[in-house]
């Protein structure tokens, strides 16, 4: 029995509500709308300079042309699909679509300026730059910022909550919950600045990047300057003056590598939170109606963080592939990038889905006070670092003659459970000053957090 047509990707099925806004930019329809946008703006730019005797369009006609883009909808999508079925060429279909709209508007006199001196890649590279820039700015970054805001709230709200740290999976010098979240905020803020600083490059220089057809058509015009003005002024991109037929995609490799890096930091966050949940350092807030197991009623599974892990891994796999393959093109042009770039939306979609799960997950956990306090109180041996460091300072100050303080504390604590009473008795018997003894006997694992709380204020 055959099912009715179904979405093949879970991003377009099960998870559409979380990632659907990306489709406005990174879908085939979004790409075609951007192509129409580039073609229309190129028409307007040419008539503005009265190219080849054309007349500048009045404001009403410019608005009518730009409405082809702003009103782009299902009818346009269907018409373009029909044109491409005949042309077997997506960009040529766009050209014919724009020409048809010129006829509708009574502008046949400028029809030959449509796609003038352009190779398909002149339109495509600019369209991808426009759509990816909009997707990052309008969709992905707000989702990323929502996670950053949640992490920042955790950092500040839990800045004073002491937590036993673990290095190599073993008890280590205590920290605070907030400081650990602040580390992730700091890492992600740096990456955000790099992502925001991306240059979205565009080329507009003809079949092999030489302006050959342009110069033959009008030898008197400064075509590089015209190209730069169009790419930067009309489209808001950064002009690339030296290319083959294609824009070299280096900006894409840079962007996707940075997004993948951010994904990996978020993956680290997901695995850490998952681990802390398993240790009881975070408790999960039951969600009404939710089920953790089909057979074990007691369970609350950390599904948000597990889902985020999986989708970050999928996103990175695609972004890594895009970054490594798009920078290579055989000689002046091959079409491997054409198929590859159609998966940009999928790569961002998995990242978006992970961001959505992380944001939700961070709102569904609470500090596990009982486990945090119990672990701190069960690991007094972590104060061995503090004691041997103070002894060293006392030796240097001439208030102690103890030899090899580290070895002394290693003998007392390594691989052993030590109680508060054990440490107090040990400190009282040390050859150190009275002030040092007072500081050490007053110390507890919960207060041995240094300036962890104050470090949160380092966040931008």
Automatic annotation (TrEMBL):
Q: Does the keyword Lyase apply?
A: yes
**Biological process (GO), any one:** IMP biosynthetic process
Say which enzyme class the record assigns.
lyase
Which UniProt keywords are given for this protein, alphabetically ordered? Lyase, Purine biosynthesis
Domain Fumarate lyase N-terminal per the UniProt entry, residue ranges = 60-308
Source taxon at top rank: Bacteria
Task: Extract the InterPro entries matched here.
Answer: Fumarase/histidase_N, Fumarate_lyase_CS, Fumarate_lyase_fam, Fumarate_lyase_N, L-Aspartase-like, PurB_bact, PurB_C
**What pathway does the annotation place this protein in?**
Purine metabolism; IMP biosynthesis via de novo pathway; 5-amino-1-(5-phospho-D-ribosyl)imidazole-4-carboxamide from 5-amino-1-(5-phospho-D-ribosyl)imidazole-4-carboxylate: step 2/2; Purine metabolism; AMP biosynthesis via de novo pathway; AMP from IMP: step 2/2
Pfam families per the UniProt record, alphabetical: ASL_C, Lyase_1
Give the EC number(s) listed in the UniProt record: 4.3.2.2
Q: Does the keyword Zinc apply?
A: no
Q: Which Gene3D superfamilies match?
A: Fumarase/aspartase (C-terminal domain) (1.10.40.30), Fumarase/aspartase (Central domain) (1.20.200.10), Fumarase/aspartase (N-terminal domain) (1.10.275.10)
A Gene Ontology MF term for this entry?
A: N6-(1,2-dicarboxyethyl)AMP AMP-lyase (fumarate-forming) activity
Domain Adenylosuccinate lyase PurB C-terminal span(s) in chain numbering:
329-449
Its job: Catalyzes two reactions in de novo purine nucleotide biosynthesis. Catalyzes the breakdown of 5-aminoimidazole- (N-succinylocarboxamide) ribotide (SAICAR or 2-[5-amino-1-(5-phospho-beta-D-ribosyl)imidazole-4-carboxamido]succinate) to 5-aminoimidazole-4-carboxamide ribotide (AICAR or 5-amino-1-(5-phospho-beta-D-ribosyl)imidazole-4-carboxamide) and fumarate, and of adenylosuccinate (ADS or N(6)-(1,2-dicarboxyethyl)-AMP) to adenosine monophosphate (AMP) and fumarate.
Q: Mind telling me what this protein is named?
A: Adenylosuccinate lyase
């Amino acid at each position: 029995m055959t099912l009715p047509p179904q979405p093949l990707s879970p991003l377009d099925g099960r998870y559409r509500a979380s990632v659907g806004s990306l489709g406005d930019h990174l879908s085939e329809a979004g790409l075609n709308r951007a192509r129409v946008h580039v073609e229309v703006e190129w028409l307007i730019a040419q008539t503005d300079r009265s190219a080849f005797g054309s007349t500048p369009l009045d404001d009403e006609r410019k608005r009518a042309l730009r409405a082809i883009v702003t009103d782009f909808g299902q009818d346009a999508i269907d018409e373009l699909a029909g044109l491409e079925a005949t042309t077997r060429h997506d960009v040529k279909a766009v050209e014919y679509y724009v020409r048809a709209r010129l006829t509708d508007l009574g502008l046949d006199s400028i029809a030959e300026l449509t796609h003038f001196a352009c190779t398909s890649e002149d339109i495509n590279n600019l369209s991808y730059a426009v759509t990816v820039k909009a997707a990052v700015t309008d969709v992905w970054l707000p989702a990323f910022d929502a996670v950053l805001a949640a992490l920042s709230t955790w950092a500040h709200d839990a800045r004073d909550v002491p937590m036993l740290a673990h290095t190599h999976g073993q008890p280590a010098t205590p920290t605070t919950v907030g400081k650990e979240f602040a580390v992730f905020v700091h890492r992600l803020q740096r990456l955000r600045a790099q992502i925001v600083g991306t240059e979205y490059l565009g080329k507009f220089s003809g079949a092999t990047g030489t302006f050959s057809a342009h110069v033959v058509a009008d030898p008197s015009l400064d075509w590089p300057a015209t190209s730069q003005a169009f790419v930067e002024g009309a489209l808001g991109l950064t002009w690339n003056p030296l290319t083959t037929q294609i824009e070299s995609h280096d900006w894409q490799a840079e962007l996707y590598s940075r997004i993948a890096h951010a994904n990996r930091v978020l993956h680290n966050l997901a695995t850490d939170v998952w681990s802390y949940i398993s240790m009881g350092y975070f408790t999960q807030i039951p969600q009404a109606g939710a089920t953790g197991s089909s057979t074990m009623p007691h369970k609350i599974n950390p599904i948000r963080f597990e889902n985020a892990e999986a989708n970050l891994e999928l996103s990175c796999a695609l972004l890594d592939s895009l970054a490594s393959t798009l920078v290579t093109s055989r000689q002046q042009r091959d079409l491997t990038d054409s198929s590859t770039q159609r998966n940009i939306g999928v790569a961002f979609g998995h990242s978006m889905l992970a961001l959505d799960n992380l944001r939700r997950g961070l709102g569904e956990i609470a500090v596990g006070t009982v486990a945090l306090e119990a672990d701190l109180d069960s690991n007094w041996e972590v104060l061995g670092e503090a004691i041997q460091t103070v002894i060293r300072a006392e030796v240097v100050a001439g208030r102690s003659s103890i030899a090899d303080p580290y070895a002394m504390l290693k003998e007392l604590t390594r691989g052993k459970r030590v109680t508060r009473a054990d440490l107090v008795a040990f400190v009282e018997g040390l050859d150190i000053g009275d002030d040092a003894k007072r500081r050490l006997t007053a110390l507890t694992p919960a207060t041995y957090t240094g300036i962890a709380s104050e470090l949160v204020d380092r966040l931008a």
